[in-house]
Amino acid sequence: MFKKIFLSSISIVVLAFLQHFVFSNLVILGASPDILAVFIAFASVTIGQRTGTTFGFASGLIVGILSGNIGLSALIGTVEGFVAGFFHVSEESHPTLTKKRRMFYSASLTSIAIGNLLLALMNNPMALPLYYRIPSMVVIGTLMNIFLTVLMYQLALKKTMRD
Asked: Contact at 8 Å (CB) between 149 and 105?
């Protein structure tokens, strides 16, 4: 357990820098992919809700410090970790890989959609009206992140879930 938390902490710092310097520049109608949200969902599903919430807060804090929007980033990360934690799969239940994958995708979709909704409600850098901002940022942001979720699962997380 300590090894998982330590490696996850290192991953959060690396992914926070990637998020700020790479992924935040890929903006479509105010929405950008969020690699940290995918990782937070993964941590929440595999480790637990408390840890996912803590990781969400920490990653939001790091990205907020880098971007200058500390409060909103920390809030969104915390909420994403908390929501994804409802899909936690305990190892005592001896889950199958299919169940783990299903819960991971469900956690990612739900937490990312809620995180994008919070971002659309509280952040308006392009001065768009609310009736346009919410559907565009939530739908486009969630679709980009689901694509990123599937890609990360296939490339890196599938092996980790088997263990």
From this structure: yes
Task: Compute the distance between CA of residue 53 and CA of residue 77 in angstroms, rounded to an integer.
Answer: 8
Burial pattern 10-24, b for ≥16 Cβ within 10 A else e, equals ebbeebbeebbeebb
Q: How far apart are CA 32 and CA 125, in angstroms?
A: 13
The enclosing H or E element of 112 equals helix 97-122
Would you say the pTM of this structure is higher than 0.90? no
Residue 35: enclosing H or E segment and its boundaries?
Answer: helix 35-46
User: Scanning the structure block, which residue is given the tokens 């996850």?
Assistant: 8
CATH architecture of 2-162: Orthogonal Bundle (1.10)
Cβ atoms 17, 59 nearer than 8 A: no
Distance CA(42)–CA(82), nearest Å, equals 12
Could you tell me the residue ranges of all domains in the chain?
2-162
User: Model confidence over 104-139: pLDDT tens digits?
Assistant: 999 999 999 999 899 888 887 667 788 888 888 889
